[in-house]
Structures are given as C-alpha cells and as structure tokens.
Amino acid sequence: MTRVVTKAAGVQDLEIDADLLVFDGVSIHLFTGSAAEIWRMLDGSASIEDVTAVLSVRHPTAPSISEQVRQFVSELVDAGLLDERAEPAHSGISVPKHVSWTRDADSVVLADLRTGTRHSLSPTATAVWHLLVAGVGGEALIHRVADEFPDAPESFAREMDELVITLLDQGLLERSPFAGRPASFG
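Request: output the structure for the sequence above.
Response:
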C-alpha cells in the first residue's frame, strides 16, 4: 500500500541555512542533514516510496535508505508532526515554505513570510484550503465543498477555481513537484 504523509495541522517549519526548526505548538524540533531533506519532501504529494527513490538517486552509496526513511516517518507520525494517508494527494497543490497558516475560529489566516502580508480566508475558502492541503482535488473537492455548503450558488465551482488560481498567483499555494497538473486551477 502506498503511504503519503503531510504536516499535521498547525505544524510550522522555519529554514535556517540547511537546517529546519519544526514547531508543533508545544515543542521545537531541530532537523539537520537527511532529516531536514526528508521533511522538505513530505508535502502531502510525495509517497514514502517517492521520497526513498529521490534519496536513493541523491545518495547512491547510503545503506538501507528505504528502512531509514520509513523509521523516521514513523517516528514523526507517532510524535504528531505528520499525518498519514493510504493514497497520494490528488490536488497537485501544496503550501510553499514561505507561507505560514493557522486556523482562527471559522477561518484560516495565511502569512506570507517573505512580504509580511496576512490574509484571512472566509469560511468557504477555509474549507477549500483544508481540503487542498489534505490532497483533495478535482471533482472530489467540488463534491466535498458542496456537501459542506449545500446552499452555495451554482457558480461556486468556478469561484473555487478562481480562489485557487488567485492563491497560486499570489504565491500562497504552489503546484507540488511530485504531482501532475490538476484538471482545473488554471
């Protein structure tokens, strides 16, 4: 079975040179070397097998990469830093490293760490955001949002597409390097 992991909700990271500080709301974790390299690839679009394949090419003489990656990922899931799914994400969209986000009541607040700009998403946009970062895309995204907001206007699918394109254009979302181009979103 293909396993895909993504950062748990509220987990933030900060790059310092080649290292990463990862904050889970309680503790700060320092990832260096291969731990930082693996963390960067775990964006919800890459399976553990994808990560292992990339690292095997980058480090051809390293022993038992697959076992080490699986062990490290298992430790991160157990620590609550990562969430695990059985299938890869399908949205083809991920949150760039320079974007921090948190839930605030019924909205999501985004911060572009490059510019200091903050954005607050509406409840509907918040639902779209959470589904996208969880890897839901295409028709599944439309159906899930329609189920959550049954009184949404008929134009909501187009408006969702426009929202995602705007977030991509503003650099608040990016296309995932491991995923193909999604059917919609420009």
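Residues 179-186 have pLDDT under 50 and may be disordered.
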